[in-house]
Task: structure prediction
Amino acid sequence: MLKIENLHYSVNENGTKKEIIKGIDLTLDYGKTYVITGPNGSGKSTLVKLIMGIINQDEGNLLLDNIDLSTLSIDRRAKEGLTFAFQKPVTFKGIKVKDLLDIASGKKNNVGQSCEYLASVGLCAKDYIDRPFDDSLSGGEQKRIELAMALAKGGKVNIFDEPEAGIDLWSFENLTKLFSNMTDSINIIVSHQQKILELADEVIMLKNGQIERKGNLKDIMPFLNENKCQRLM
Ligand SMILES: Nc1ncnc2c1ncn2[C@@H]1O[C@H](COP(=O)(O)OP(=O)(O)O)[C@@H](O)[C@H]1O
Ligand SMILES: [Mg+2]
Result:
């Protein structure tokens, strides 16, 4: 179980304190998929970065099976089983795709295994395993390779920030199939996409750094549309 208690995060903007996450409490269980949604700027990316330890909260606790994550670095959290796929992937100069898959899975994969991971995200493996993971790859390719890494790692807690971004050429069905195969872990997906929302055991709607609503998609749906209308108006 991942327990998030009274999480607060603020940044200093031109000398004034700007509160971005304003007291979030959540209990997330193994074997469940949670989709975090909400308007742009509501704090979704900030929340998942706090969970992974990319940034650190000002206040509050993060507990994974009673291990206090709050004081642990990103790498220690990764060792405890947290994986993270960024909204915008981070590229590494000089590292090949197959090396990244080895790092992610913590072992030397044979070609067959590496190919399997890449094939599951719709990439023809032989074209990619020896390529460097850098900006010579398109945004969509980087994103898919990052998803393949998350698969290779197979964490206890899998966090995906807008995984659909930049993969328009690859059918959603493949992406949703990927997620629905992650059955034992705690899966946290930031998304606005209907198909991904449909995978959620629980939808968590953020607004202004707080949880505005949570529940199953059916109950949340009317409010999602309400938000869309407000934005259009
Ligand atoms: N380092 C920062 N400095 C200033 N403002 C920030 C910083 N990080 C995030 N924000 C602001 O916090 C809000 C939430 O950001 P973010 O979590 O990225 O939103 P979302 O992912 O929901 O679109 C936004 O208004 C964003 O501009
Ligand atoms: Mg975001």
In short: The CA atoms of residues 102 and 108 lie 5 Å apart. Residues 11, 13, 18, 20, 40-46 surround adenosine-5'-diphosphate (ligand 1) (CB under 6 Å). The first strand starts at residue 2 and ends at 13.
